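Residues and backbone
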Amino acid sequence: MAAPANSGILSLARGALRAPIPHELRGDLGMSVLILALFLLQVFTGILLSLYYQPSPEAVSESMQFIMRDVSWGWLLRGLHHWVSSGLILVCCLHLARALWGARYRGREWYWYLGALVMVLVVVLSFTGELLVWDNQAYWVVREFLADIETIPFIGRGVADVVRGGSEVNASTLSRTWTAHALFAPWLVWMLLMSNLALIVRDMRRAWAGGA
């Protein structure tokens, strides 16, 4: 009787999990898996929060209060989302610092480039997330931030208008901030993390082939 078609895939996966990890890749793999786990936790809590959050200036304050006051464990979800965001930034900083220490990135520049891009996007996610409360402080932070962008020669005004959704900070600005935070940036982070893991797996296979 023929074996199930997926038995070969399962055997390959078990073999990969049991295979020894090369010493020089253990730190990279461990940090990458930790960053991925924190990111997935952010995605999970973010999806749950998005069920109640309303990205409109008239309703955002009420929806935030509803999450904190009336949703079961809503305060915990928001707290986790906030603190895991800070933890994700910290782990990304440690990952980059580890790469800089002793110039470990030399000869493996793609790890450095991907890690730096993930770090930038994680900061963008944290920044846009803080703005989604859309209170008076967040409003003025957005205005000052966009005013700084406008000082960039040639492209500053155009970029600021795209982010703002016009010439003034309004409901379109909040909508675009929400889109960047909930849709655009997370997908970019996911693709970069998958690319980073793919590079690590490639190097692990090369190490296994060299040691065979």
